[in-house]
């Protein structure tokens, strides 16, 4: 049976994804069931600036007012999702774009309405819907939005969504594709790290901003089935000769 891999494409790198990235995906698609979760933070930011809507981040999460939520929905589900599906199709990859609101894919609730507004956390993933698409040979491409029982929608960090989907589906692999070649310390890629190291790097200010939700999502997704999460660059080939290049995150050193 084909293994399942969840790949999160960061907004930081979406417009710069190299042909080698899509070629890596083509190779993966022959051997694995692929689910893509995309971000779009920089594009949301640009549109908010154009519309003069103020925006601010708390530990890498965008504080989301009603106005910000409207723009996030427009950019994530309307623009970025459809553009990415279009490119994947050009490479012959059978992509289907959905947001977490479709088919109750991501049931969400506010993390802390007072501090973050309409920023959601994932309460449930509609695995049956994703499995149906995968069974029919499609690559689901998910925009990071969700809704609660009342139909209220939420802006969810895309790293959080990728981690939650990987966990819910019992995926064998989780990849964060971003604009840096992994976690950097003093300008050098940390090739292997652990949950404890990550906590130390956050406390020491080595890991900041958008890297915080990424490593937190990675740590939360680690399980018996998912022993390793990778952070890789979308600007360079990250998969050659069967090997992934970037930062490998495990629970403990040597634990598989
Ligand atoms: N220790 C670190 N190593 C690498 N990147 C880091 C680190 N700490 C903070 N960052 C920042 O995290 C960014 C990646 O997160 P983000 O901008 O949210 O990307 P994405 O859109 O791919 O999720 C990097 O471009 C970098 O500016
Ligand atoms: C709550 C929250 O922060 N939502 C993110 C959703 C997009 C995202 O996560 O995009 P990246 O992967 O490019 O960072 C935002 O509004 O920017």
From TrEMBL:
| Transmembrane segments annotated in the record for this chain | none
Q: What gene name is listed for this protein? A: argB
Q: What GO terms in the biological process aspect are recorded for it?
A: L-arginine biosynthetic process via ornithine
Q: Where is this site: Transition state stabilizer?
A: 8, 214
The UniProt entry's GO CC annotations, sorted and at most eight, read: cytoplasm
What is the name listed in the Swiss-Prot or TrEMBL entry for this protein?
Acetylglutamate kinase
Question: EC number(s) in its UniProt entry?
Answer: 2.7.2.8
Keyword annotations for this protein?
Answer: Amino-acid biosynthesis, Arginine biosynthesis, ATP-binding, Cytoplasm, Kinase, Nucleotide-binding, Transferase
What range(s) does the Aspartate/glutamate/uridylate kinase domain occupy? 4-232
Pathway per its UniProt entry is: Amino-acid biosynthesis; L-arginine biosynthesis; N(2)-acetyl-L-ornithine from L-glutamate: step 2/4
Binding residues for substrate: 40-41, 62, 155
What's a Gene Ontology MF term here? acetylglutamate kinase activity
Species this protein is from: Anoxybacteroides amylolyticum
Q: Where in the cell is it found?
A: Cytoplasm
- General function of this protein: Catalyzes the ATP-dependent phosphorylation of N-acetyl-L-glutamate.
